[in-house]
Queue: 3 jobs
Job 1
Amino acid sequence: MKNPRLSSSINLKSDRLLDTLADDGLRINLIQQPGMEKYQHQLFLMPERRRFRVARWELEAFFSAFQSGTRLSQWEQPAMRNDLVLCCTHGTKDKCCAKYGYKTFKALASTVAEHPLPFEVWESSHLGGCRLAASVIVLPNVRKYGRITPEQALSFLQAEARQQRFLPGYRGSSQLTPAQQSAEIAALTQLSTEARQPTLALISDHGDDQAREIRFQWRLDQWQGELTVHCQATTLRRVDTCADLAQGPTECTVWHAMVNG
């Protein structure tokens, strides 16, 4: 799936075209940075790492060209070198994202400005997981994180710069099921060292909606092996977003993972 990431405001015709693209299965987010030009937009296409510069009055033409498969060379900029770090600050969707997300966004942006780290940091519209604010995603690897605090900004970015997951906030691979995500995090926590993390490959997943046995093959430097993770479903009541506070908690299922060597 392609993931065009779009910045700033758009007009109504462009908005309708974006709705059509989203209906076709594309994930679209609006993003911004302080000091952006008012009538010029930067657009990113992931995972291809393509960047475009489009004047506001050309947005409709750009989206129509993209939808029809026409060449986009007239808007294309040099290929991206740095990864994108998007931090949700979408207060209209959830007040927690504005309260916690903006603080984390500022910390991430200032950290990149002060250290030689290969990232661009942007504010983003809704990324999902509002209860986990501040919610962050790193592209093009599509690694999602939750509850990233300003104090964790440097450690988080340094881990990602080494192509490692920041385990204190990692939410699991977006290609995995919720149970497999829990198992992946448990396996990474079990096998990782301070300096290195293993590569994991899913071998098997057996069970039902209450208990699952998930097996990974792992490799770390010259070592390799297999690891089994047992996952147990638990039902609890929680409030998922600030917007749900008035209606109160609702039932949801979460997975607990236990590693067997």
Job 2
Amino acid sequence: MSKKALYLLGIAITIILGTFLYLKFCCNCCEKTTTDITPKTVTPTVTEPNFVPFVLNGPGLNYQTNDNLKFLKNSAKLIMPVSDSVTTGIDNLKKFLEANPKQKITITGYATSDETNSTTFENLGLARANDVKNYFVSKGLLENQFSTKGTIIDKWKMSGDTLLGPAEYLFEAIDSTATSNDEWSALKAKINADPLILHFNTNKSSEKLSDIEKQKVTDIAKYAENVKDAVIVVIGHSDNVGNRDSNIVLGQKRADFSKNYLSKNGIDNARIETQSKGPDEPIGDNNTAEGKASNRRTVITIK
């Protein structure tokens, strides 16, 4: 075989061998690369929001922030301090209500069914609504533009042992003709015909009220809320043990205690008058223990 033929044969063998090696190694590499870059489908994790927003949504007002008022479990007292964003919302609400004096808002407070109500209110939700209202009033908002409700539910959003914003705000237009003067007069007559009477042990007081007594407090608060010039009169009485002067002082202390109790339950402190009759107006026989007990009392009426 000539040198030229051998040269051409070598070239042919080189081309064939190169093609074989390319197909074996380079194409496998390309296939592997294609497999590696195939996108994978990842299912996103859905998490529950860790906030309950503070929302004020009425005609002409729409404010919302992810922060909120907070309460400890089993407690009716707001956790202080309140955040700046909520305070800003309350300031906006104040301006809105000043510009719309006929606007009324119902505050609904919530509590869970496993919480303990240690307040004098019908339920813990109502106690929370009243505390929110009192906080608004402390910020300069008018008490007579708010009413309160309480609702018990199975659960509420919590962070540890703290309930996040267990209150809602319903904006309602005040209908000045909805309740006539005759109806408020009838409520006043009912309160005065069967007044709230709080009894006291000797030199001691108690905030434990019966359901009937709690309802009377509710009626007084409702009347005071809707009749702007209403004045609540609290008169303290005593038995005849000791001298008259000391019993006058004791009767006044009982009247002041009752005033403080009414104030804590939503009645404006400035609209409550107190006085003492001491032992001068007994309703029971001071010669018996039972009679003395009935004389140790405060009587609460509408002026």
Job 3
Amino acid sequence: MTQGWSARDIPDQSGRTAVVTGANSGIGLLTARELARCGARVLLACRDERRGKEAADRIRYAVRGADVEFAALDLADLSSVREFAAGYRADRLDLLINNAGVMALPYGRTADGFETQFGVNHLGHFALTGLLLPRLLATEGARVVTVSSGLHALADIDMGDLNSERNYRRWIAYGRSKTANLLFVHELARRAAAAGSGLVAAAAHPGYASTNLQTAAARMENRRAAERVMGLANRVVAQSASAGALPTLYAATAPGVRPDSFTGPRLLGWRGAPGPSWRAGWTRDEVAGERLWVASEQLTGVTYAGL
């Protein structure tokens, strides 16, 4: 039962190791804090060193004895992803939380030439998961939780234009990147089951949670009016970032989470305690999942040995 589930229901995480991407603020920071509060060793995988180390300090201040550490990771640069994975020294990895993301940005490209939203939200995490896969497969009960969005419903993936080069519309590109997250989880779960692995691949989304994600694009483009409107909506309509982190924490820690599940707020997918969430049928299309997987391996140069 998920009704009323809260951070108080997180099982003891002592002895477990977690990697949380984008853990310097918002939902990622709160996810990392609660995992640390429950005894996990948490690696904060963040692009900005100063903000990442400040986040680690904030968690240590909030949680006495918290075992947290910053490690540099820029999902917009595959060389950084490879460097992070090569530097991961722990012999186990219980939780990989693919949380970091960007939303509705003006058109841009990653260091490797991919459209930014597709490159960061999907390809960076695809590469990271594949490079850390040996640790995940070697850890009993390991889980990969990828944060998608209810806004995946805006668009199915376009295999003929993965980089949105023909006609870039920022919200459509965002929806496609979030559809890619769900197709990735679906295919990873299918492959893990076929290989006889106990690895659980699940997805979550925060509903409408008040974080800096909503205002980032407007701030980047100096659109002050849009930034104020989004800030007002965050204060009046959105649920708290703490509430928005609960679906991720549930998918990562609750007993009995099923592979390829999609957890979000129970109230219309918008707010409230975590529960099963609606997802578009195209996010379970096995042909599309396989095609995206193969394309992602080719684009990143990362193959999933063992699956």
